[in-house]
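Title: Prediction job returns without error message
Component: structure pipeline
Severity: low
Priority: P3
Assignee: unassigned

Description:
Job completed but the reporter wants confirmation the result is attached to the right record. Sequence as submitted:
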Amino acid sequence: MPALVLGALSCASPADLRLRTDEPRVIAHRGGPGPDGTIAGCLRTMADGVAFLELDVRLTRDGHAVILHDPTVDRTTDGKGTIESLTLAEVKRLDAGVKFAPAYAGERIPTVLELLRAVGPSAVVLLELKIPQAADPVLGAIQAAGAFDRAVVRTTDKGLLRKIRDRDPRFLTGTMGAMPDFGEVDEVVKEMKALGVRSFTPQTGRSVIRPLVDRFHAAGIAVWGTNTNDETQWRRLLEAGVDGIITDRPAQLSAAILTTLKR
């Protein structure tokens, strides 16, 4: 599909970066097809018209918050070992692009602050905290980048969500989990709203249905389908009225959304 069509569908002016919207968002898992979790990979995805990026955050041995999906650097870089065993200086010597394609040789694992500054105000970045200790440096990076309206800190830790809310209500937060049933959804939504949660990612399945999604929407909470590359699941989630879907196949999901909107 031409990039022009993708751009018209899911990008890119700041006015289009609302979490709650009637137009479902394509959310690129790991920042897009690649190179995985890098600035170059994210900018490549954005150039294709996808303005929502989902990324994982881990800590180096010396406490720096960096973008990395796996607990080790083995798959995506020319190095080996766990990220928590390496200092930031050691991480910055690793090549995070060459395994994807020779043209990306020299690409580095970015810190959260570097990533936020690189994508600027043209993208919303979903930052999943893989360890709770990453919260403080991530919040500091969001503050330093002035990214309160374009970075969503995601965690299942309710205590951490409460601390983030209390630190500064401008921080956007999200959480994940099973979709509650009709008997518990109102209580779950009430609790999320009290914690300041702005987005919820339920486990994909037949339980994600429009009447339940509507309860979250009524409270101003966006609902994003969890990472799936299955077209049948895409259709179910779109029929349920979700605000976006996380996927490794952003171009194909863009086409599926376009088809749905034309019906």
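Comment from assignee: result matches the submitted record. Strands lie at 25-29, 52-59, 65-67, 124-129, 151-154, 172-177, 197-202, 222-225, 244-247.
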